[in-house]
Amino acid sequence: MTKQLMMVLFSAVLLMSSMQFVQAAADLEANTPVISAIKTSMQTRHVQLQSHYSAGAIGLTEDGMIAVKDAGAVPLSQRGALAGLVKDENADRVRLYKEIAVANGHPEWQGEIQSTFAGRWIDKAQAGWFYQRAGAWVKK
Amino acid sequence: MLSCASKSCVIKKSHLPIDIVVPFLLFRAMPYLMLCMLSGFFLLASPKAYALSNISMTADVIQYDDVTLSQAKVTIDLNGNDQAVVDANTLEYGTARLDNAHILLDLKANTTLLIQARQIVTPQFDARNPNIYLDYRSTNPQPSLTFNAEIKPITDTQWATFKLNCLIPAQKKTDTWHCVDGLYHGERVNIPFTIDFLPQPKGVEASIQFTQASFSDVSGLHAGEKLTGKVMLSAQQVQSIWHWKGVFNWQEGELFWQPFYFGKAGNTFDIAGTYQSPMLTVEKANLQINGVGNLSASADINLKTKAFNAIRVDAREVDFAGLYQTFIQPMAQKSVFGNLKVSGRADWHFEVKDLQPQNFELNIENANIEDENGKFGFTNLNAHIPWDYNGPKQIFLAYERGHLLKLPLGITHLSAEVNRYSIVTPQLRLPVLDGALQFKDVSAAWIGNGMVWHLQMKLEPISMNSFSKALGWPEMNGKIDGQIPLVTYANKQLNMDGQMQFNMFKGMIAMSDLRIDNPIGVGPKLFANLTMRDIDLGDLTRTFNFGSIEGKLEGDVKDLRLENWKPVHMDAIVQTADGKHTKKVSQRAVENITALGGEGTAAALQRTFLRFFKEFNYEKMGLSCQLRQDICKMGGVESTPSGFVIVKGKGAPSVNVNGFTQYVSWKDLLARIQRITDGNTKAIVD
């Protein structure tokens, strides 16, 4: 009897601990019309951003956003457009993280999704692009 | 010998050569010039003060005119090197403080004086390792003053080099000082300059010439490159009020001041006003911008709080194209007004008080506006748009003609009442083609950060023929008219009360329960129900080149949901109406319906038989689609064990069309419709 009870308890403990490991992983590739609209908007913009990444005018931040690193790399006449691109890109990124969290049914995951993406963007960045590490700009 | 052992020793001197304070900081380099000047004037007074036989003095505090020395030690050695040395813990002059000041006065050389200090601290900037060298030797044709130091504005983290050489005129109080080789140089700033400086009894006149100067803030969003120009400043103190004026003449270079870009030089800015701490009053500022015109402004600015207490801006007879490119386009880049081609003239008046817009007036004369993306355009636009915080104003807008997308707009006169943050008008009528779009009971208001509005709309009959031609659609006949009961927009949500109804093809198409979330943001969502009654199939099929069908069409789309304007949900059925009217379908239409049904759909009829007849009788035909995300579950007017019936024939000759593929992707279904309606598909009957 005691042995059976022990077995039940043991199984229960095992089950509980295994449940903790069943971590619900976020589907970062979740797709809804809204997410696909944001991605399309970002892809269109990326064509314009690419040369600014290569020139070191902008870089990837640690929190999954982009920032102006050296506006001096861009002629004065194009600085307004650059600032606009960065602002729009960041607005899209915030929306993307939020919508992916919503699509996963866990709006509260937005922060974690954002930090996962931050790493992804940097991994995917081309050589020569800049990204932030511990607040400082690093050339990839 | 004067020996001062008391705690405080005060030396008073009745005469000051020049009493000067540069009253305001209109120009970035101004604080440094100010520092240079005040140091110089202090020094000018010095030789006389120390023209004593032998002085040795220590004191906790020495006050000398506006100069205060603390923990000072003065040693004058007339017997040996004829030098006077002053060391002080701090030297304070006005708001500036020199720490660890070391002053060396060489009396033998008649006279040189060197002031060194560890740092100078002022409210606006810090300087370290300053050297102020005054050369009064008779061997020089003219005495000179040299100043150099590393300086930085208090708010900055970067140090910059500052230097300037001035020739001291014979009459220091009334002659012009010529200062050359001025340089303010740092990591993001390089301003070579010269300055001519004329002291006034109670004021100053200065003319600064800068050549190929450049500067930028850390972000690069406030920057100038290769700037060459001249700044003329003058200031006079009358009692406690400073009267000042300045002229800025910008001859070369470009300037970016987020979000504005000034690429064309040849701009002049003249400005005059008064200063009485802390208020800076700009009585008149004229900005002549190349390619735009003349803007004049006045303002009251509190320099302590940095608040603009009152601003008035006037622009008369300004070139609308230049005004748009320089000022409006950068602000409106992402909006529908961001890519316009404009011409005409504009007057503009704007007043702000205590950070609150007070009034505004924009008059546009004979302007042409054309969206480069082709979305809209107006010809000969005239507008009078006043606004007043304190009372209602009547606004008018008229144009001779225009277009919205490809829809031509006729001569239009609009008026509305604007009251603080709301705008109302009982009626707006926009002539479109041979009809008009009428807005009634229009009211809009800005509440908090959002906009709230409601309106009713009525479409006065427009001939479908011209409407379809204008939009490049297949030619249609008849007239379209309709109405929208009440539409409200609040909290980023658009809601329609009642039913929006349009009459066309002798029947009616109506939309109800319309709601749009976030219509102008990212990811808009639309919810609605649609009904369609008594649509004349003859007219419809002729229009869309489908192959003739005689009969009446009705349809219902329930729980339609669009996300980002793409359908993701609906229960739709489109079918022919029962009744005693003619029900005939042409051979070609049968082929097209078969194609619409997709693979496996078959006309249950011997092909040889089909060939003999141009048209057939039918009892009913219809298609339904239950859309869930991207998949549509198709159905017809009846179910069969293996599929559904799309066309149910009747009498002789009759035809039956059955569908077998129940699930089809929305994309494929759209592609099928596209293939059929583009008219390229020709029914081929073997």
* Gap from first CA to last CA of chain A: 64 Å
Percent strand of chain A equals: 5-15%
Q: What sort of overall outline of chain A do the alpha carbons produce when their principal axes are compared?
A: globular
Helix content of chain B: 10-25%
Low-confidence stretches of chain B: 1-52, 680-686
- Note the quaternary state here: heterodimer
What do you see in this structure?
The complex is a heterodimer of chains A (140) and B (686). With 140 residues, chain A is an alpha+beta fold. Chain A has helices spanning 2-21, 33-54, 76-103, 110-124, and strands at residues 58-60, 66-68, 130-133, 136-139. Chain A is built from 4 helices and 4 strands; from the N terminus they run ααββααββ. In chain A, helix 2 (33-54) runs antiparallel to helix 3 and helix 3 packs across helix 4. Mean pLDDT of chain A is 84; it is low at 12-23. With 686 residues, chain B is mainly beta. Among the domains of chain B are: 1-230, no CATH class; 513-677, no CATH class. Chain B starts with 7 loop residues before the first strand and ends in a 9-residue tail after the last helix. The A-B interface holds A 32-34, 36-38, 41, 68, 70-72, 74, 76-77, 79-81, 83-84, 88, 92, 95, 99 and B 188, 216, 219-221, 223-225, 254-256, 258-261, 263, 330, 333-334, 522-523, 563-564, 566, 568.
Task: Tell me the layout of helices and strands.
The complex is a heterodimer of chains A (140) and B (686).
Chain A: H1 2-21, H2 33-54, E1 58-60, E2 66-68, H3 76-103, H4 110-124, E3 130-133, E4 136-139
Parallel strand pairs in A: 1-3
Antiparallel strand pairs in A: 1-2, 3-4
Helix pairs in contact in A: 2-3, 3-4
Chain B: E1 8-11, H1 30-49, E2 56-64, E3 67-77, E4 83-93, E5 96-106, E6 112-116, E7 119-121, E8 125-135, E9 144-153, E10 160-167, E11 177-185, E12 189-200, E13 203-216, E14 222-238, E15 241-257, E16 260-262, E17 267-276, E18 279-289, E19 293-302, E20 307-319, H2 320-331, E21 340-353, E22 356-371, E23 376-388, E24 393-399, E25 401-404, E26 407-409, E27 412-419, E28 422-432, E29 435-447, E30 450-463, H3 464-470, E31 479-490, E32 493-497, E33 499-504, E34 507-517, E35 525-536, H4 537-543, E36 549-550, E37 552-563, E38 566-576, E39 584-586, H5 587-597, E40 602-603, H6 607-612, E41 615-628, E42 631-635, E43 638-640, E44 643-649, E45 657-659, E46 663-665, H7 666-677
Parallel strand pairs in B: 1-2
Antiparallel strand pairs in B: 2-3, 3-4, 4-5, 5-6, 5-7, 6-8, 7-8, 8-9, 9-10, 10-11, 11-12, 12-13, 13-14, 14-15, 15-16, 15-17, 17-18, 18-19, 19-20, 20-21, 21-22, 22-23, 23-24, 23-25, 24-27, 25-26, 27-28, 28-29, 29-30, 30-31, 31-32, 31-33, 32-34, 33-34, 34-35, 35-37, 36-39, 37-38, 38-41, 39-41, ...
